[in-house]
């Protein structure tokens, strides 16, 4: 907290795919803590693992409220309920195209985990509106689970879902690996908006516009891949389709 950063040595939320790896004297604190949580709530992939972990995240990216789940965990009905109950921000669904057993996130320790991500919120800043949205989403989730466990039949219907395809790094200096561009002003804060071939993507520090070379149309979206998600600047995995 003193450094006002999400992590010091390693992102703990990326450590749960090796939650049983040997610990050494040089292992970062986050790796050690991930194994402690796996032993407490798992072990991951076992029948003894806890039924559900809902991992709560905030983000510097303008994601609104996003429910993130895996191909083996269907939370679409909860998402549809959330969309009808929560109206202050857009409620979206992001599906990661792999089973929860292959995931590295904290919620993957449980058998039916998913995450809720809300933004934008800068580091070191308390925003009441973001807190209220997350609290409303958590309360609704708990109520939905109680109803599900009691046999409630929920109304069906279509739900738009985004599917992660690939991640893309920012342009960097080939020798120093420092950033040479920022997200283009026309794209900043427009997570999940349609991006067409020829639309501005990056704006270099020498004031040049960089356009996408990828197949379009696509929807830039946010998870590990935010429009300007600050925590991912060092990791070379910044945004994606």
From TrEMBL:
<dbReference type="GO" id="GO:0005829">
    <property type="term" value="C:cytosol"/>
</dbReference>
<protein>
    <submittedName>
        <fullName>N-acyl-aromatic-L-amino acid amidohydrolase (carboxylate-forming) A-like</fullName>
    </submittedName>
</protein>
<dbReference type="Pfam" id="PF04952">
    <property type="entry name" value="AstE_AspA_hybrid"/>
</dbReference>
<dbReference type="InterPro" id="IPR050178">
    <property type="entry name" value="AspA/AstE_fam"/>
</dbReference>
<dbReference type="InterPro" id="IPR055438">
    <property type="entry name" value="AstE_AspA_cat"/>
</dbReference>
<feature type="domain" description="Succinylglutamate desuccinylase/Aspartoacylase catalytic">
    <location>
        <begin position="3"/>
        <end position="139"/>
    </location>
</feature>
<keyword id="KW-0378">Hydrolase</keyword>
<keyword id="KW-0963">Cytoplasm</keyword>
<feature type="domain" description="AstE/AspA barrel-sandwich hybrid">
    <location>
        <begin position="158"/>
        <end position="207"/>
    </location>
</feature>
<dbReference type="InterPro" id="IPR007036">
    <property type="entry name" value="Aste_AspA_hybrid_dom"/>
</dbReference>
<dbReference type="Pfam" id="PF24827">
    <property type="entry name" value="AstE_AspA_cat"/>
</dbReference>
<dbReference type="GO" id="GO:0016788">
    <property type="term" value="F:hydrolase activity, acting on ester bonds"/>
</dbReference>
<keyword id="KW-0479">Metal-binding</keyword>
<dbReference type="GO" id="GO:0004046">
    <property type="term" value="F:aminoacylase activity"/>
</dbReference>
<dbReference type="GO" id="GO:0046872">
    <property type="term" value="F:metal ion binding"/>
</dbReference>
<keyword id="KW-0862">Zinc</keyword>
């Amino acid at each position: 907290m003193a450094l006002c950063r999400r992590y010091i040595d390693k992102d703990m939320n990326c450590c749960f795919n090796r939650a049983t790896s040997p610990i050494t004297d040089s292992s970062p604190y986050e790796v050690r803590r991930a194994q402690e949580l796996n032993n407490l709530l798992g072990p991951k992939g076992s029948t003894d693992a806890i039924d559900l972990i809902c991992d709560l995240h905030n983000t510097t990216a303008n994601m609104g409220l996003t429910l993130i789940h895996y191909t083996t965990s269907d939370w679409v009905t909860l998402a549809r309920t959330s969309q009808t109950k929560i109206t202050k921000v857009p409620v979206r669904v992001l599906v990661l195209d792999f089973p929860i057993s292959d995931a590295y996130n904290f919620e993957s320790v449980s058998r039916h985990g998913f995450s809720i991500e809300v933004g934008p919120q800068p580091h070191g800043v308390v925003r009441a509106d973001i807190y209220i949205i997350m609290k409303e989403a958590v309360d609704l989730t708990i109520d939905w689970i109680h109803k599900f466990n009691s046999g409630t039949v929920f109304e069906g219907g279509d739900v738009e879902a985004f599917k992660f395809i690939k991640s893309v790094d920012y342009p960097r200096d080939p020798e120093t690996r420092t950033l040479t561009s920022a997200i283009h002003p026309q794209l900043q804060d427009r997570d999940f908006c349609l991006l067409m071939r020829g639309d501005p993507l990056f704006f270099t520090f020498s004031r040049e516009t960089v356009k996408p070379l990828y197949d379009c149309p696509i929807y830039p979206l946010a998870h590990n891949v935010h429009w300007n998600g600050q925590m991912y600047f060092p990791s070379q995995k910044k945004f994606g389709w």
